[in-house]
Amino acid sequence: MLLRRWSQLVAAHERGSALVAVLGVMVVGLILTTVIASTVVRAFGFSTSTRASVESQAAADAGVAAARAGLYAPGNCAAQTTPGRYSSTGSLAYIASVFFDSGSGWQTGCPTAATIRVKILSTGTAQSFAVAGATAGNNRTVEAIFNYTTPGPQPSGSAVDLFSGGTVEANSAFTLSGTTGLLTHNGNLDCNKNNAVINGNIVVNGNLTFGRSCTVNGNATVSGAASLGSGSVSGNLTASAVSPNPPGSRVGGVYTQTTSMPAPPPWADVQYSPNDWVDSRGVAFQVRTAPTADLSCTLSSGNLGGTTSPGRAVIINMLGCPGGPLVGNNTSITLTSDVAIFAQQFNFGSASSLTFGTSGSAVFRLWFITPDYSTNQLPTCNRSKPSPGAQGDFTMANGFVASTNGSGTGGVRAMLYTPCALLGNNGFTWSGQIYAGQYSSLKNNPTFTADPIGIAGYDLATGTQTTVPTNPQPGAPVSNRNIEGG
Fold this sequence. Notes:
Mean pLDDT: 89
Number of helices: 1
Strand content: 25-35%
Oligomer: single chain
Structural class: alpha/beta
């Protein structure tokens, strides 16, 4: 009896110990199961989030591509259900909005003729959303910025480009712009007038000589010697030598002596290529030729512009006019559109008070072009050719005006291109750009305001020909990035 009772007590005790062990194993199993389940859920969430991220990124990129392609097709942007907004609800779901910048900041909508950059903001949505709370990849937003290229002449080059050098004797109304406002490629820049002022930066691949108290209100970079006389440079001066030495107060900034300068760009050999000339919409310039029944070799007072439709830009081909276009004193020409005049020379030196303007607040562009028929990247003025092919300089008499009005509205923006010389010895008023091949003279207090215009089919900053687009379109990409939080 006693042994049996003892055995029962021992067995009961062992059964309690086993239960504790079993419960411990169960707890551990539950913990492991929870950990494994949590890991599986997180892994599944990560996997679906990765898939969603790939899908939404592909959709956002597709939106950028669709909007960019649409901007190549005339009228496509405005033809969308919501103008300037491209969308898709297919396997690649996106909403892509177009913005444009015309120089005053980003605006929503389709680009205009004045647009310089476009931005596409595209948000893509995944086809299959992530699960387990991993929503970060469901949407992606891409921002892509492009330059915007319009057909027609594009601004390029310096405000005043005197390839072989020249003389500039102006008052304080001679205003340049840009890092290189005035450039000589292979020639000196001279000034021999008291109180002459050049407002802007100059680069002279030659010598800079001030015979009197000339002033450059900007920086001067000179490959040769800078003889300042009683003149001055308000900014920095870089030259191989300077007189007086040291320049002291003649230089407002820092004088750096160097004999090393970047090579200037080559001369642009501009031909007569009417097919290059289209307006900002891609519409070809009308071509009018003189001397014909349609047009004589005389520029008379009155309107000058396209005749086939109101405001259509026009090329006036006067290459067949001996001695170039004829003008008389007190001639006032009103442009009714953009006008490009091609002639072997422009002899305006005997015509006092010759003015080019517009009516009202309209501003049109005006080109005076003497072609360079050579292709040697050097200015070639063919003076010895028989008439009417003999080329000559662009000359002006007193009272010559080709400029915008002081208020900024109305008037013309003028571009001169000649492989010969510009001889403006009697003062003139000009808004625009000058590109002359031979040693030129800008004297007697000319008024000049920089406003680069360029020439169709050429980049004057590099001296090379360019491809002319047939319609407005996105150009080179500026940036492409994902927007955080999109």
